[in-house]
Amino acid sequence: MKKLMTLLLIVGLMGMLTVSYGQTSYSTSRASGTIMISGTGSYQTDLSQDLRSSYWNINTDLALFLFPQFAAGLDLGYGKHMQEMNDEEDPDVEETVVMSLGPRVYFFMGGKNSELTPFIKGGANYLINKTLYNDEEDERDESELGLVASAGLLLNLAKNVGLTVEAEYNFEKGTDVNDIDTKQLLVKFGIRSFLGE
């Protein structure tokens, strides 16, 4: 699994570098007052189980540049895991819904004419995990804390639109003593747009 994640990250970075060589120079320095809107999404399914399980999630965030190249904002996430069990004709369905909301800060390190812009991001999450069994809520678990840190690259396709790839580290701490703290490393692809100068 680690090799696959590393391979995906390398392929994504190489693709972004290849496309960036064909671009002309333009100003990509983000000034104070610029609004940034971005979104990422992913979907996965287990082919070994005849598509009886799947997971998808979307994240969107809205941020304001307080200083040149430095922005602060909010991130909203929603994900769902579905698993079918027992009889294939009339299966029992278990769904897990994960919702997150939290502050984010961003620092973009690109210069005034850089098409390929590195960035770092950090923040915290408030998480709610909800489990449904055959459309009835079975369990609700709230996590007090989720910390997020990531590093990535923005490929500027135009002055105010770009594609991103980032490696994100998540740490989630449960509210109960018996809860297991979880750590995740994700590779995420998304799109960002900028409103203003």
Fill in the keyword field for this structure.
8-stranded antiparallel beta barrel, elongated, 10% helix, mainly beta, Porin, 197 residues
Structure characterization notes:
The structure is a single chain. This protein is mainly beta and 197 residues long. The chain has one domain: Porin (Beta Barrel). 10% of the residues lie in helices and 65% in strands. The chain has one helix and eight strands, in the order αββββββββ. Strands 1-2-3-4-5-6-7-8 form an eight-stranded antiparallel β-barrel. A hairpin with a 7-residue loop joins β1 and β2.
**Main sheet strand line-up:** 1-2-3-4-5-6-7-8
- The structure class reads mainly beta
Q: Tell me, what's the shape? A: elongated
Number of strands: 8
Total count of helical runs of at least 4 residues: 1
Q: For the record, what CATH class applies?
A: Mainly Beta
* Main beta sheet strand tally, sense and closure: 8 strands, antiparallel, barrel
| CATH arch. level architecture | Beta Barrel
